[in-house]
Amino acid sequence: MSKLLIVGTVAFDAIETPFGKTDKILGGAATYIGLSSSRFDIDTAIVSIVGEDFPQEHLDLLTSRGIDIEGIEIVKGGKTFFWSGKYHNDLNTRDTLETQLNVLADFKPVVPVNYLDSEFVMLGNLHPLVQLSVLEQIKNPKLVVLDTMNFWMDNAWNDLEKVIKLVDVITINDEEARQLSGEHSLVKAARKIAEMGPDYVVIKKGEHGALLFNKEKIFFAPALPLEEVFDPTGAGDTFAGGFTGYLAQTGDISFNNMKNAVIYGSGMASFCVEKFGTGRMENLEDMEIQSRMKEFKNLTQFDIELSANKAL
Ligand code: AMP
Fold first, then answer.
1. Which of 52, 158, 238, 253 could pair covalently with 272 via S-S, beta carbons 3.0-4.6 A apart?
2. Tens digit of each residue's pLDDT (9 = 90 or more) over 77-114
3. pLDDT band at 232 (very low <50, low <70, confident <90, very high)
4. What pLDDT, on a 0 to 100 scale, did the predictor assign at position 227?
5. How far apart are CA 251 and CA 186, in angstroms?
6. Does 308 have pLDDT greater than 90?
7. Residues 6+ apart with CB under 8 A from 29
């Protein structure tokens, strides 16, 4: 079985959407990535840090999904990373209200010995120097995927550039792709980002789907049209977890297989948004994943005869 090592925040979130508000609940990039990638037939581990205020039941949830948490450091007397955000009515855009780094400010990650030979590495959202330090510890990864956000572009640009140079795939949302590249057109943005290092650029567009770029090749996957979207928090990370989990399980990192990985990522993300926080991902059944992937296939498959010299 392939090993997938994830680094990212394990956190408390306070979220406000047009449908309601939560107090401090379980969140964090690595949490969402892990809850998604652990649905695949792979060995998953998380490297992260929390404070003493972090409830054991949240750690137990990760363990119950088969995730190795030896790499999650618990700091005595420390406070866990905290993020709060408020979504606009369109649910595609949000404002960060507060980011408290707390224990993350002094994090020196240590990759568990068992995972030093991980074939797949998912550098989830946190300080780029922490992402870099994790990457330096892994011997010879087959595929390294990076996710980041505007906070690190604003606060650690030079370090972020160093990590971007070293990764194979970057997953990023549309606004962040524009900020990172200085280009409005996503096609131009993807080209510029690829020049910074990654061979593959995945741009997530929320309810408008996701784009995969590799040299001159482009693939587009829509998002599943859902009746109810309660809370988009973690959708991007859940996408990244599904994307990397699928690649790790299949072991095939070709462009063609990455298209399937984008579909799996989108499918997993479609569950995440149906409840507040991690609620939906915690109780997801394998059968539900299977039937949603079938739905996805039916939605996107079509058969048009294209004539060589006529419009129709
Ligand atoms: P997403 O909605 O996929 O962008 O991810 C939301 C998750 O990212 C939340 O659960 C937050 O705890 C986490 N998060 C927010 N800001 C940061 C940050 N600056 N660094 C790392 N993780 C963050």
1. 238
2. 999 999 999 999 888 888 999 999 999 999 999 999 99
3. very high
4. 83
5. 29
6. no
7. 8, 9, 11, 124, 125, 126, 147, 234, 237
DSSP 8-state secondary structure symbol assigned to residue 41: S
Ligand 1 centroid vs 96 CA: distance in angstroms? 10
Among candidate residues 176, 134, 135, 130, the one with its CA nearest the CA of residue 154 = 176
**Ligand 1 pocket: which residues have CB below 6 Å?**
9, 11, 13, 27-29, 83, 99, 125-126, 149, 151, 233-237
Burial 135-149 (b: 16+ CB within 10 A, else e): bebbeebebbbbbbb
SS3 annotation, 167-208: CCEEEEEHHHHHHHHCCCCHHHHHHHHHHCCCCEEEEECHHH
Please, how many CA atoms are within 13 Å of residue 21, restricted to the half-sphere of its CB?
Answer: 3
Cβ-count burial of 53 within 10 angstroms (0-12 exposed, 13-18 middle, 19+ buried)? Answer: middle
User: Which pLDDT score, from 0 to 100, does residue 312 have?
Assistant: 66
Query: Which atom in ligand 1 lies closest to the alpha carbon of residue 239?
Result: 3
Beta strand pairing call for 82-87 and 72-75: unpaired
Minimum-distance ligand 1 atom for the alpha carbon of 81: 12
Tokens encoding 7: 């680094």
C-alpha 32 to ligand 1 mean position (Å): 9
* Cα separation, 157 vs 180, whole angstroms: 9
User: Of 81, 94, 78, 57, which is closest to residue 7 (Cα–Cα)?
Assistant: 81
DSSP secondary structure of 93-150: -EEEEEEE-GGGGG------GGGTT-SEEEE-SS-HHHHHHHHHHSSS-SEEEEE--H
Residue 173 token pair: 């949302």
